[in-house]
Specification:
The protein is α+β, with helices and mostly antiparallel strands. 34% of the residues lie in helices and 21% in strands. It has helices at residues 15-24, 47-57, 94-102, 129-139, 206-210, 215-224, 249-269, 284-291, 296-305, 332-359, 418-422, 427-436, 461-477, 500-504, 509-518, 544-569; strands at 3-7, 34-35, 39-43, 62-63, 66-67, 69-72, 82-88, 107-112, 120-126, 143-144, 147-148, 150-153, 197-202, 227-230, 240-246, 278-283, 308-311, 323-329, 407-414, 439-442, 452-459, 489-496, 521-523, 535-542. It has a six-stranded antiparallel β-sheet. The longest helix is centred in the middle third of the chain and has 28 residues, at 332-359. The N and C termini lie far apart (90 Å). The model is unreliable at 160-193 and 359-402 (pLDDT under 50). Pfam families: KH_1, RRM_1.
């Protein structure tokens, strides 16, 4: 991938002009410029140089009145399933990127390309040409956190010519293991089957971990084959910053050990005398199993590694901070061994939960959790092939044709938060709508003093989950709720008036069970006048997961009502009817 295509070249441009531009921007090339009418080709000594040329020149440098377009030169026969996505926001989480890519098809591989650029670059392989073509059309030029994504084809050596299958061999290569990036490019580690390692570090050591112009952190990622996110902008002014490490268990441990060594050296250099413990962040769901019955598991880790381990109290948890802090004290060697043992237990818990989720995936009917990008696509039992398949028993929000039915939810947010949800020039709400695959609109205020505004979300279950999750998260990020306060919102869904009784149940039994199961408050106001569509409102209040589970359960009830109606409406033969006997003559 060292050969470049230079497009939008002026008819007046010469080989010398192009050579002058490359020299001006200190970009090396290993061969002469092949100039054609309107375009040109050139070879670079390596891919890193080619990437820099694309980043520095494409869409930015003008020659004879025309802005040059620079990208990898890919022969038509090799324009198949592989894309390169550039200008990805530097702090974007892998989970968000995976979720975005999965909207356009099954992603077989996604590998990070190590570059000197501030933004990230990945090479992506889709299962089919059509999926890659769709991703190219939709993503190229689209805005992501104020960065315009740049997407182009890269050579796919396994590509087969398009046309009718011959001898059943077409697509054979695509079923094999995806090619990994060359070692020099720092291919994205296969992280899907493992939960990332998250650690807290004192803010004063973040600069040393990053290094001058990011040199230290790049070196760590290269040596340990990991992807490291330093969340510098989180918790402004806080004494500690979280770091997320994506890699194999061994890669995570190596990166963690290196970070501890760097902090220790920096402490010596700055005469910092306090002890620097290792602080691991883990979701509360896994902590009980880490501790073990009567604390046996934790005690064994302490004894085996020679460390002292404490865990932050439950009182520190909120819906948007479900992590506990595991503080490990001891020598660097001891802390490193303890990290391996702690994360081993957490990963075992995670894999156990994933397996259980696959077995009980009808807990939230109609919701394809894999398509949301919330869980790694390579997790046990959830390969890419399942990306578009509803979970077993998921009938609640689906039509009989197999496509999820669109739903409408009215979510009420503080009136003061409307600007944050819309964003500058409507940018945030557009991105949110694109990300979730839903229509999202803010209803007009009901009067000058209205304290709440209604957000109208229209889309299938997966889109509802994504859109509502982002809105809840945005309100927390923008401090519309206190640091230790859960975000609780009210959602309204409309149900046919004749089905309201089914939601309530005899003597309120169903609605009470709903509230106990979901921890949400569910109310069907009495004495409602049905609207023009003969529908009434069900009000759901609670934190995000409570609201989601309640919405799914109510949709399941409605789906049962619809099925029963369809069965009743099917024509039945008259009772006792038999075919007439022929008359005897």
């Amino acid at each position: 991938m060292n050969k470049l295509y230079i497009g939008n070249v002026s008819a007046e441009a010469s080989e010398e002009d192009l050579e002058s531009i490359f020299k001006q921007w200190k970009i090396q090339h290993s061969g002469p410029f092949l100039v054609k009418t309107g375009y040109a080709f050139v070879d670079c000594p390596d891919e890193k140089t080619a990437m820099r040329a694309i980043d520095v020149l494409s869409g930015k440098v003008e020659l004879h009145g025309k802005v040059l377009e620079v990208e990898h030169s890919v022969p038509k026969r090799q324009r198949s399933c592989k894309l390169q996505i550039r200008n990805i926001p530097p702090h974007m989480q892998w989970e968000v990127l995976d979720g975005m890519l999965a909207q356009y098809g099954a992603v077989e591989s996604c590998e990070q390309v190590n570059t000197d650029m501030e933004t990230a670059v990945v090479n992506v392989r889709y299962a089919t040409r059509d999926q890659a073509r769709l991703a190219m059309e939709k993503l190229n030029g689209s805005m992501m956190e104020n960065y315009a994504l740049k997407v182009s084809y890269i050579p796919d050596e396994t590509a087969t010519p398009e046309g009718p299958p011959s001898g059943g061999r077409r697509g054979f290569n695509a079923r094999g293991p995806p090619r990994s990036g060359s070692p020099g490019l720092g291919a994205r580690p296969k992280v899907q089957s493992d939960i990332p390692l998250r650690v807290l570090v004192p803010t004063q050591f973040v600069g040393a971990i990053i290094g001058k112009e990011g040199a230290t952190i790049r070196n760590i990622t290269k040596q340990t084959h990991s992807k490291i996110d330093i969340h510098r902008k989180e918790n402004a002014g806080a004494a500690e910053k979280p770091i997320t490490i994506h890699s194999t268990p061994e890669g995570c441990s190596n990166a963690c050990r290196t970070i501890m060594d760097i902090m220790q050296k920096e402490a010596v250099d700055t005469k910092f005398t306090e002890e620097i413990p290792l602080k691991i962040l883990a979701h509360n769901n896994f902590v009980g199993r880490l501790i073990g019955k009567e604390g046996r598991n934790l005690k064994k880790i302490e004894q085996d590694t020679g460390t002292k381990i404490t865990i932050s109290p439950l009182q520190d948890l909120t819906l948007y901070n479900p992590e506990r802090t595991i503080t490990v004290k001891g020598s660097i060697d001891a802390c490193s061994r303890a990290e391996e043992e702690v994360m081993k237990k957490i990963r075992e818990s995670y894999e156990s939960d994933m397996a259980a989720m696959n077995l009980q995936s009808n807990l939230i009917p109609g919701l394809n959790l894999n398509a949301l990008g919330l869980f790694p696509s390579g997790a046990p039992g959830m390969g890419p092939s399942m990306a578009n398949v509803p979970p077993p028993g998921a009938h609640g929000g689906c039509s009989y044709g197999g496509q999820p039915e669109s739903e409408t939810v009215h979510l009420f947010i503080p009136a003061l938060a409307v600007g944050a949800i819309i964003g500058k020039q409507g940018q945030h709400i557009k991105q949110l709508s694109h990300f979730a695959g839903a229509s999202i609109k803010i209803a007009p205020a009901e009067g000058m003093d209205a304290k709440q505004r209604m957000v109208i979300i229209v889309g299938p279950p997966e889109a509802q989950f994504k859109a509502q999750c982002r809105i809840f998260g945005k309100l927390k990020e923008e401090n519309f709720f206190g640091p230790k306060e859960e975000v609780k919102l009210e959602a309204h869904i409309k149900v046919p008036s004749f089905a309201a009784g089914r939601v309530i149940g005899k003597g309120g039994k169903t609605v009470n069970e709903l509230q106990n199961l979901t921890c949400a408050e569910v109310v069907v106001p009495r004495d409602q006048t049905p609207d023009e569509n003969d529908q009434v409102i069900v009000k759901i209040s609670g934190h995000f997961f409570a609201c989601q589970l309640a919405q799914r359960k109510i949709q399941e009830i409605l789906a049962q009502v619809r099925r029963q109606q369809q069965q009743q409406q099917q024509p039945k033969p008259p009772s006792g009817a038999q075919p007439p006997n022929p008359r005897r003559k």
